[in-house]
Structure formats: C-alpha cells, structure tokens
Amino acid sequence: xxxxxxxxxxxxxxxxxxxxxxxxxxxxxxxxxxxxxxxxxxxxxxxxxxxxxxxxxxxxxxxxxxxxxxxxxxxxxxxxxxxxxxxxxxxxxxxxxxxxxxxxxxxxxxxxxxxxxxxxxxxxxxxxxxxxxxxxxxxxxxxxxxxxxxxxxxxxxxxxxxxxxxxxxxxxxxxx
Length: 176
Fold this sequence. Notes:
By secondary structure, the protein is an alpha+beta fold.
C-alpha cells in the first residue's frame, strides 16, 4: 500500500499545500497545518516534523524536492532558532500533545493538553524554547511568566542540551 503524502510548496517564506484528502485528514486527526481557503499553511517546525516522518514532501518554488537537510538550510535563513524550536516541538508531539505557534503571545508555542484540539478548548501552556547554553535575566524570565499569566496559561520552558535532549520545566505562581 502506497504511503499517503502531503505535497507542499516552500516559496516566499510560506509553506503551503493545496487542500486535499491527505492534508484534510492529517489536520482533522492531529491538527497539523492551518486551513485557510482551499489551502493548508504549515509552520516550519510542522513541515520539518512531517518531512522527517515521511508524511510530507516539500518542494521549493522551482518544483525541486527538498530533503531534510536542504529544508533545514533554507528554513534556518528565516528562523535562526529553528533546530532548538524543532527539537522541543518534536518531543512534545512524541508525548502526544498538539503544539501550535504562539507568535501573538510572544512565545514559541502554545500547547494543548492531550485529547484537546485547537478550537475545542484553549491551550494549557505557553512554551518557550531555549538552548542550555543561553542565559536569561530575571527580567526576561519574569516577562515570560507575565505572558503566561496574562493569557491564563501555564508557563513551560523547554531546555535543549548539547545532545539534543529536552528537559521541560513547568513554572507556576504559588501563593504562600
């Protein structure tokens, strides 16, 4: 049986696939992509995840198929933190969570509890991705916590180490 694959185009900083049975089913089952009109739009980490899982083919604007490394090289020009964000995204997806971008919250991702789909309920966490070698000030940390608190979400920090392993920290307000 032939594996069903979404064919997407990565052009003009956008990753898009025409609406079709495979893209629709993939969205309905696991909420990959965002439907808009007769197309599905994918974040770079979603497309990278689907590409690595062999559920998506990505072609460039010249209709040339991109492998994983070629896609990473092209996408890193738009997002220098792509690999750190991808490793955190991949780990959360492996654990059964639906993960969507959270640009409007000033975070990397919003994360939905297992069994909850976007549109059915709100995300439980805002997730910030960091490399273990990065440093942060208490003011920056406080700002992240304020974003989570003001959006009524829990703060989750995903820290990626040199081996590519991810450790998650759930930060919560406590009243003594």
